[in-house]
Amino acid sequence: MKKAVWSGIITAVGMLAMSTSVYAQAQTATGTVNVNANVNAKAKLTINGGANASITFADADPDVLATLPSAPLNIAVKARTSGTGAVTLTVRASQDLTSATSDTIAITALKWTSTGTNFAVSGISSTGADVSVFSATGSGNHSGVQNYTLDNSWAYATGTYTTTLTYTLTAP
Amino acid sequence: MSFAASTILTCSLLVAALAIAVPADAQTATSTFSANLGGIAKLSLSSNTLSFPDADPDTVPLVPAAGGAITIIAKARASLAATVTLTVVAADDLRSGVDTIPASALTWMASGAGFVNGTVSRTAPQVVASWTGSGIRTGTQSYRFQNSWSYRTGTYSVSLLYTLVSP
User: Fold this and answer.
1) Hey, is the C-beta of A101 within 8 angstroms of any chain B C-beta?
2) Whole-angstrom Cα distance, residue B112 to residue B116?
3) Which CATH number does the domain housing residue A68 bear?
4) Is 0.80 topped by the overall pTM?
5) Domain B38-165 adopts which CATH fold?
6) Do B45 and A8 touch (CB under 8 A)?
């Protein structure tokens, strides 16, 4: 009888020890969250910090200044596209430089030079075609400076000449 | 009651019965009851998906998740001094085909006792919350996606794995 009792006690102690070792293991629980983030194509262009800017050429003696300078335009290009997407910025003039009395100066007298990565080094304004100002591949922020000049000439009729330059940024 | 506990009780009662069979004298018998409360961990997330809509990086530099915050309920049974920890790790970077955005673009703001703010990593589990001892803890995680002009277009996906450990 005593042997049976002791066997029971030993068995119980043994099982208790075994069960304790099981419960001592770290318990873990897991969960999963699936994340989706949508990144769509975008294009943003600012000139001198805004959507619209103006440049003015002061009058000057053609013998002294063959080309009239203007204040620089700071151009910021932001584009989000595919890895191979072609980002382009072009400019086109609405008309030749035209005065209130309808005198004109050929738009080709309006030229520029640029600085900045992927910006065209120079260009001549056109009313008939988009002229490339900037081109790059892929997404990113870009900035450059465009300095316009106007050819000066004794042949121009007096007046205040205006035109509008439209910039178009494309990110497919 | 666990099997081990019931076995102890049976054996103890057997000892007591044997003791009673001995001729009447001053006898004492002790019955010991025990219950093994093992460690348990249980985790509940209010949502298993997070979706970030497209947004202008200039106006929304940190895009909040469309569904709002995730509510987390963590239940753990541990010893008094044990540290219960909830971590999260990304399975990969955010991926859209061959294009990737680092998992660290995902950050969260937390609320609730024991919950902390953090940044997702794909290499090391990041602590979401930790506590000492047993209990039920509830908190929230408000995820945000770091927006940028430099990202390539696409729908980026990744899985976040949560692990609650109760030692």
Assistant:
1) no
2) 8
3) 2.60.40
4) no
5) Immunoglobulin-like (2.60.40)
6) no
